[in-house]
Amino acid sequence: MPVILKAEGVEKQYGNEKTGVHALRGIDLEIEEGMFYAIIGKSGSGKSTLLHILGGLDKPTKGAIFLEGENISALRGNALALVRRRRIGFVFQSYNLLEEHTVMENILLPIHLDGRVQDVKFVDQVVDALGIRDKLSSYPDELSGGQKQRVAIARALAPKPAILLADEPTGNLDDKTSREVMELLGKSAREFGQTMVLVTHDREIASQADRVVTITDGRIQSIQEGKYGY
Ligand code: ADP
Question: Can you tell me the distance from the alpha carbon of 103 to that of 135, in angstroms, rounded to the nearest whole number?
Answer without folding.
Answer: 7
